[in-house]
Structures are given as structure tokens and as C-alpha cells.
Write a structure and sequence with these properties.
Blueprint: H1 4-31, H2 35-39, H3 47-56, H4 63-75, H5 89-124, H6 129-143, H7 146-157, H8 162-189, H9 193-224, H10 254-261, H11 264-301, H12 304-311, H13 316-346, H14 348-353, H15 359-368, H16 372-400
Helix pairs in contact: 1-16, 5-6, 5-11, 5-13, 5-15, 6-11, 7-11, 8-9, 10-11, 11-13, 12-13, 13-16, 15-16
Length: about 400
């Protein structure tokens, strides 16, 4: 049985969707007060054609009638025709929206895996080196703008041989940070001030030496270990030379359709194209999930049953994985679903930078081309997706946590 609060949210769902649709419908006339004149260059050259266009768009009727006619068509999948191309808008949405869902699912998966691991390690070693490093990465991830990260990723990993060099650089930096951390922890155990100062100074020096070695010799090291030819694509969903057989597109998700068609080459090519935009898009959700997991894990670790499990002699690993982690993940479900909803409508910048043919790129192209019929449909689909995803998350959370059903 659903709780009163959840029932109220579900009842408010249709009201929210109606409000969103009204807002999307009313904002567009502000940008194009005269749709007939906006489309006259391509669709209505004569007065007769203009009159037919007015009748088809119901522009000679009241605004309320226009809204109801538009929503009647939208509920049946008819969003009108594109002002720029004359194609059916619903058909274009059917091609680009699966691309956005595929990208958002991959980004959410990466964010959950890395965020939960970082949050658990941070809570398990509270105050230690894993805690400091994890929360520093989370702070950087939530603070840096997504468009800047996307540009950095594209310029750093997309060129031929760049991925190998960056892997070498990150490995060298990681090794230097680990050594520096060991020196720092050793310094905390020592009593002599001079010894402490020397170890702390040495840990700082190790990081800078690692940074110098990584930057100066990343090319030579990547050539020596055979990583010089590695590269990641930075545009589109597949290689432009990829041939799709007739009837290949079934679901619109390239990874799924390639499995159905038995085309492993297209599957791995699609995965390679997903890596950079997915990681760039996952940075902010990963940081949010890591911080929430840490705070939730710290709260759970302080419970009496965790203390009892420790008193029985269970190792830290078993206490966390078998007892604490299950209850820690309950709030993570909510935040992960919410972040997924954000990604469906907020991947505009990432899709634009990586030329990803999704809903965000579709809407940006429509705005730049003054194709307001497509803009209205794209914004409405983004808003509706976010509202529906949040409603699904609320219901799922009530099913997982029995306390929410009281």
C-alpha cells in the first residue's frame, strides 16, 4: 500500500505534466509571434497557401483551442511538421531520443559504480587517505562545469596516441600520489618535528616529480608499452563508414540493435563512441552519489547492529558488504534516479560538444534554425521525461523501503 505522501505525488503528476505542456506551448509564440511569416519563405509563398497554413495550425482560433488541438495531436504522437525540413517531428524524435537514453543510461551506470565505490571507501577509511582523495575528486567533479570537462576530455583523449599517453600520465600520477600518501601517513606516526617535516616535504616532492615524469615522458613510455596507436572517437554514435543492413534499427539503441543483429563490430564501435561522452556526463552525478553514499554509510556504520557485527569478530570488508552496504544503498536509489532524469534533459552541452545525435543536439539545432515546432516538442519531451522518471523513482523507493509505505 502506498503512503499518503506518495499518493499525493502520483495525483499531482498529471497536473505537473499539464502545467509543463501549457508553459512549453505558451513560450514558443513569444519567440515566433507570427508562425505564418516565419514559415512563408519555404511553405507558404502564396496567399492561398498562407490561408491553408493558418487553418491547419488553427491560428484563426483562440489560444486555448490551439493548445487543445496541439495536445490532442501530441497525445497520439503527432507533434506537427518541422519548419526547416518538412519532416514529421515525431519521427525525428524517435531517432534522437533513444540516443539520449542510451547515453544517459551509460553515464548513470558509470556514476553509480564509481560513486558508490568512492563513497564506501571514503566512509570506511574516514579521515584517512582514501577519504581525502575520494572527497577531493567528488568536490572537483561537482564544481567543474560540464562543458569545460567535455572539451578537456575531447582534446585530451580523442587524438591518435593521446589515450595511451594519458593512461601513462594517470598511472604515473597515481603511483606518485600513493607513495606520497604512504609518506604522509608515516609522518603522522612519527614524533620528531624534523622527521615529520622531512616526510611531508618528501611526499610533496614525490607528487611533483611524478607530474614532471608523466608529462615529459608519457609519449616515450606509451610507445614502449605499445599504447601509441590507441585512440577514442569523439564524434557521433558510430564510425561514418559503418554500414547498417536493412532492418537493423529495431529499438533505436545501437548497442541493443547490434546484439539483435549479431553485429559485434557495430557493438564494440558503439561502445567506443560512448566512452568519452558518458564519462564526461557522469562526472557530476558520480560526485553527488559519492558524497551521499559517504554520509549514508557513516550513519549506518554508527548503528548498534554494525557494532554488534564488529564485536563478533567480522572483518571490516564483511561488515560493510554484508550488513552496512544494503541499507546504505536505499537513498542512493533515489538520487540515482533523479540524476538520470537530469541527464535525459541536461545532456545538451555534452551532446553538442561530442556531436552526439540525441535530443539535446536536436533541440539546439532547432533553436539555431528557428524551427520552433521542433523546439516545443523537444522541450516538452525533456520536461515530461524528468517528471515521469522522478515519479517512477518515488514508487520504486517505496517498494524497496517498507518504511515508506506506512
Amino acid at each position: 500500500m502506498l503512503s499518503t505522501g506518495l499518493r499525493s505525488k502520483l495525483i499531482a503528476l498529471p497536473v505537473t505534466l499539464i502545467g509543463v505542456s501549457i508553459l512549453c506551448f505558451l513560450v514558443m509564440p513569444l519567440a515566433a509571434p507570427d508562425p505564418v511569416s516565419a514559415r512563408s519563405g519555404k511553405w507558404a509563398q502564396t496567399e492561398e497557401q498562407k490561408r491553408m497554413l493558418v487553418e491547419r495550425l488553427h491560428l484563426d482560433e483562440s489560444l486555448a483551442t490551439q493548445y487543445f488541438e496541439y495536445m490532442k495531436g501530441a497525445l497520439t504522437g503527432d507533434f506537427g511538421e518541422s519548419w526547416a525540413t518538412g519532416r514529421d517531428v515525431a519521427s525525428d524524435l524517435g531517432k534522437c531520443f533513444p540516443a539520449t537514453i542510451e547515453l544517459a543510461v551509460c553515464a548513470t551506470f558509470i556514476a553509480i559504480i564509481l560513486g558508490v565505490i568512492a563513497g564506501v571507501l571514503s566512509a570506511a577509511y574516514r579521515g584517512g587517505l582514501p577519504d581525502i582523495v575520494s572527497m577531493l575528486i567528488a568536490l572537483i567533479g561537482v564544481s567543474l562545469p560540464i562543458f569545460w570537462l567535455a572539451v578537456i576530455f575531447k582534446n585530451s583523449f580523442a587524438g591518435r596516441g593521446m589515450i595511451g599517453q594519458r593512461i601513462v600520465l594517470m598511472l604515473v600520477l597515481l603511483a606518485s600520489i600513493v607513495l606520497a600518501g604512504v609518506c604522509y601517513l608515516e609522518a603522522k606516526k612519527r614524533r620528531g618535528r624534523i622527521t615529520k617535516f622531512a616526510l611531508i616535504l618528501g611526499s610533496i616532492a614525490i607528487v611533483f616529480v611524478g607530474l614532471y615524469v608523466g608529462i615529459s615522458y608519457q609519449g616515450a613510455i606509451s610507445d614502449a608499452i605499445g599504447l601509441s596507436n590507441w585512440r577514442l572517437p569523439s564524434q557521433g554514435r558510430t564510425d561514418i563508414r559503418t554500414f547498417f543492413p536493412e532492418g537493423f534499427r529495431v529499438t533505436g539503441f545501437l548497442t541493443v540493435d547490434s546484439i539483435i543483429a549479431g553485429r559485434s563490430d557495430i557493438f564494440f564501435d558503439a561502445i567506443r563512441h560512448l566512452i568519452l561522452p558518458s564519462i564526461a556526463l557522469a562526472t557530476i552525478p558520480m560526485a553527488v552519489i559519492a558524497r551521499l553514499t559517504r554520509s549514508s554509510m557513516i550513519e549506518v556504520i554508527g548503528q548498534d547492529y554494525i557494532t554488534s557485527a564488529r564485536a563478533k569478530g567480522l572483518s571490516r570488508f564483511k561488515v560493510i558488504t554484508k550488513h552496512a552496504l544494503k541499507n546504505t544503498l536505499l537513498p542512493v536509489i533515489t538520487i540515482s534516479g533523479t540524476q538520470f532524469g537530469y541527464l535525459l534533459g541536461g545532456a545538451v552541452l555534452t551532446e553538442t560538444i561530442f556531436s552526439w545525435p540525441g535530443l539535446g543536439q536536436f533541440t539546439v539545432d532547432a533553436v539555431l534554425g528557428s524551427d520552433y515546432e521542433c523546439v516545443r516538442a523537444g522541450v516538452l519531451l525533456m520536461a515530461t521525461s524528468f517528471v515521469v522518471v522522478n515519479a517512477i523513482v518515488d514508487v520504486s523507493y517505496s517498494l524497496v523501503d517498507p518504511r515508506q509505505r506506512k
